[in-house]
């Protein structure tokens, strides 16, 4: 019960390697300071991109899906583009914002539990967060389902008005 779910390689081997290289570069008196800072910046940026790269890719892919929808609807007309833009913003603010915020809070709690070597709490946090996120997702789903039916009714009413005007 007190064992971690994932076993890492040697603790901190990559960090120790990059840290020692960084210390060697920064403490080298033969190199001019500007060159030392450039090399140190390069090492830090490579380390940062390796850590943050997957999160950046996921964020970009999420934005590409909503952007591609807006691009295709922009070809239909200005009103359609406005409707899709408002719809995407509503979805992103309500679901993505709320659910991602709650998931980020769980990530913080899990990191703290792992750092404190309380591996049993990781499972408890994950179970609680799964239940809480599902309970939050159900009302959001109901809101979206009823908003779609409401929009469909409004669309039918507008079509009827257009037909009455034409005839």
TrEMBL record:
InterPro entries: MATE_fam. Keywords: Membrane, Transmembrane, Transmembrane helix. GO terms for molecular function: antiporter activity; xenobiotic transmembrane transporter activity. GO terms for cellular component: membrane. The chain crosses the membrane at residues 41-61, 131-149. It holds the Pfam family MatE. Residues 1-30 are annotated as: Disordered. Belongs to the multi antimicrobial extrusion (MATE) (TC 2.A.66.1) family. This is Multidrug resistance protein, MATE family. The lineage of its organism: Eukaryota, Viridiplantae, Streptophyta, Embryophyta, Tracheophyta.
